[in-house]
């Protein structure tokens, strides 16, 4: 179960190198769509999602992951080399996705989602924010 959520985190690491290596946008889009489909299929069974939830989760993931991809591409296009900025973008969209998914999942589903790695990912994002704030 944790593998599916961890793969959500890994998509960020797949997108960033993909942008850095400059494969075609179509190749990147195809990889993102395959990832979304695989993730939703897993969540559909693990979290016992209803059809309407599958629709919303698909919409959320599609929007947020493509927005993440676009922001990372923009940083790359502008030749930004500060890796902290790339991490900030990933954290922003991770938080956004969690916030949106919370509205779709019921309490039981949310707790399962959290136990499968989302809680740890959110804690890691918060630690990075705290560390950044302390250094400023």
What is the first-to-last residue Cα distance?
37 Å
Give the percentage of residues in beta strands: under 5%
Number of strands: 0
Number of helices: 5
Biggest sheet, in brief? Answer: none
Percent of residues in helical segments? over 70%
Number of domain units: 1
Return the average pLDDT rounded to an integer. 88
Q: What Rg is obtained from the alpha carbons, in whole angstroms?
A: 15 Å
Give the overall shape: flat
The helix/strand order is: HHHHH
Unreliable spans: none
Overall structural class, as computed from helix and strand content, comes to mainly alpha
Task: Explain how this protein is built.
By secondary structure, this protein is an all-alpha fold. It has one domain. It is 88% helix and 0% strand. The protein has 5 helices and no strands. Helix 1 (2-21) crosses helix 5 and helix 3 (51-77) packs antiparallel against helix 4 (83-104). The model has no long low-confidence stretch (mean pLDDT 88).
Give a quick rundown of the structure:
The chain has helices spanning 2-21, 25-46, 51-77, 83-104, 107-135. It is mostly helical and 136 residues long.
Task: Describe the secondary-structure layout.
Blueprint: H1 2-21, H2 25-46, H3 51-77, H4 83-104, H5 107-135
Helix pairs in contact: 1-2, 1-3, 1-5, 2-3, 3-4, 4-5
